[in-house]
């Protein structure tokens, strides 16, 4: 029972991060029908920017409170990633909106390699230790079950951000414009919606979520490097497909479900495989799920939002 509860906690932690990243994928896809495969690398830029900010603050203000230091690092990383998201949409994707689907896909993959290469030039190839500004001393709420304060913060912050994003999309004027653009951007523009601004705003919000997810991911594992966004990005894409890409609720659900499946798989894979596999093979579960969903339920758990037209 202790192992079961422990894997449940681990799954919720990593699933919360996947959900935040998946929201960026699903928002862009819902409006443009584009899979932005460079989204995971925005996560990497956010984590490394936060790391650089923390190292700078440690040098100039070593007595600064860890909470203030982490807050300042986020306040730097989020605008940097938002600017990056805006530039990606404006320079790389805007001219390809009416192009065949293969062109934006290839461009997105190219942007991913470009971001990784630039990050490698700036921060080098080596892994960097990410400062643990929030205590990592394990708490034991239940005998034999451990959770760190960092993981508690990740779960609570992720839940708050997801609720806030849902309210933004469903209750605000810009959210109404986003839904109208997703429904039909040509008709929305005829009704007075600035679709270019809405699409740019979507990229900016997705990039901000990726920056926060990057700091969470690096804080949880204690490392950051130029290639750190590739695998979480692929898994978050899997989560978006699993939940129903284009559906915000589906992205949240898909991220949590994928995190739980991955965690339970890592915890029990050795037993299930009779000792042939160990927890280092946990990544196979994400891609097994992706294959099964694409074969048996391509629309995902909650399905893609499609409106009937006369």
Automatic annotation (TrEMBL):
<feature type="transmembrane region" description="Helical">
    <location>
        <begin position="42"/>
        <end position="61"/>
    </location>
</feature>
<keyword id="KW-0812">Transmembrane</keyword>
<feature type="transmembrane region" description="Helical">
    <location>
        <begin position="99"/>
        <end position="123"/>
    </location>
</feature>
<protein>
    <submittedName>
        <fullName>ABC transporter permease</fullName>
    </submittedName>
</protein>
<feature type="transmembrane region" description="Helical">
    <location>
        <begin position="143"/>
        <end position="169"/>
    </location>
</feature>
<feature type="transmembrane region" description="Helical">
    <location>
        <begin position="273"/>
        <end position="296"/>
    </location>
</feature>
<keyword id="KW-0813">Transport</keyword>
<dbReference type="GO" id="GO:0005886">
    <property type="term" value="C:plasma membrane"/>
</dbReference>
<feature type="transmembrane region" description="Helical">
    <location>
        <begin position="237"/>
        <end position="261"/>
    </location>
</feature>
<keyword id="KW-0472">Membrane</keyword>
<feature type="transmembrane region" description="Helical">
    <location>
        <begin position="67"/>
        <end position="87"/>
    </location>
</feature>
<dbReference type="GO" id="GO:0015808">
    <property type="term" value="P:L-alanine transport"/>
</dbReference>
<keyword id="KW-0997">Cell inner membrane</keyword>
<dbReference type="GO" id="GO:0015188">
    <property type="term" value="F:L-isoleucine transmembrane transporter activity"/>
</dbReference>
<dbReference type="InterPro" id="IPR001851">
    <property type="entry name" value="ABC_transp_permease"/>
</dbReference>
<dbReference type="GO" id="GO:0005304">
    <property type="term" value="F:L-valine transmembrane transporter activity"/>
</dbReference>
<dbReference type="GO" id="GO:0015192">
    <property type="term" value="F:L-phenylalanine transmembrane transporter activity"/>
</dbReference>
<keyword id="KW-0029">Amino-acid transport</keyword>
<dbReference type="GO" id="GO:1903806">
    <property type="term" value="P:L-isoleucine import across plasma membrane"/>
</dbReference>
<dbReference type="GO" id="GO:0042941">
    <property type="term" value="P:D-alanine transmembrane transport"/>
</dbReference>
<keyword id="KW-1133">Transmembrane helix</keyword>
<keyword id="KW-1003">Cell membrane</keyword>
<feature type="transmembrane region" description="Helical">
    <location>
        <begin position="12"/>
        <end position="35"/>
    </location>
</feature>
<comment type="similarity">
    <text>Belongs to the binding-protein-dependent transport system permease family. LivHM subfamily.</text>
</comment>
<feature type="transmembrane region" description="Helical">
    <location>
        <begin position="196"/>
        <end position="217"/>
    </location>
</feature>
<dbReference type="GO" id="GO:0015190">
    <property type="term" value="F:L-leucine transmembrane transporter activity"/>
</dbReference>
<dbReference type="Pfam" id="PF02653">
    <property type="entry name" value="BPD_transp_2"/>
</dbReference>
<dbReference type="InterPro" id="IPR052157">
    <property type="entry name" value="BCAA_transport_permease"/>
</dbReference>
């Amino acid at each position: 029972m202790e192992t079961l509860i422990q894997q449940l906690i681990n799954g919720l932690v990593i699933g919360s991060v996947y959900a935040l990243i998946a929201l960026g994928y699903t928002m862009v896809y819902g409006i443009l029908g584009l899979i932005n495969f460079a989204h995971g690398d925005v996560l990497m830029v956010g984590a490394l920017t936060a790391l650089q900010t923390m190292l700078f603050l440690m040098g100039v203000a070593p007595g600064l409170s860890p909470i203030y230091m982490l807050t300042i690092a986020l306040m730097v990383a989020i605008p940097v990633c938002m600017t990056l998201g805006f530039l990606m949409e404006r320079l790389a994707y805007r001219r390809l909106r009416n192009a065949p689907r293969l062109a934006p896909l290839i461009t997105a993959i190219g942007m991913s390699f470009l971001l990784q290469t630039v990050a490698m030039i700036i921060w080098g190839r080596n892994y960097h230790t990410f400062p643990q500004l929030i205590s990592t001393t394990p708490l034991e709420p239940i005998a034999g079950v451990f959770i760190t304060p960092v993981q508690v913060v990740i779960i609570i912050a992720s839940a708050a951000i997801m609720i806030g994003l849902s309210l933004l999309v469903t209750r605000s004027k810009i959210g109404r414009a986003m839904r109208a653009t997703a429904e039909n951007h040509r008709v929305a523009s005829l009704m007075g919606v600035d679709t270019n601004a809405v699409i740019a705003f979507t990229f900016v919000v997705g990039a901000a979520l990726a920056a926060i997810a990057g700091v969470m991911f690096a804080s949880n594992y204690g490392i950051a490097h130029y290639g750190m966004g590739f695998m979480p990005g692929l898994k978050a894409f899997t989560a978006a497909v699993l939940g129903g890409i284009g559906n915000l609720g589906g992205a949240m659900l898909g991220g949590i479900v994928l995190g739980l499946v991955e965690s339970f798989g890592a915890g029990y894979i050795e037993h299930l495989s009779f000792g042939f596999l160990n927890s280092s093979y946990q990544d196979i579960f994400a891609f097994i799920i992706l294959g099964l969903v694409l074969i048996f339920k391509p629309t995902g758990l909650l399905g893609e939002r499609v409106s009937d037209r006369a």
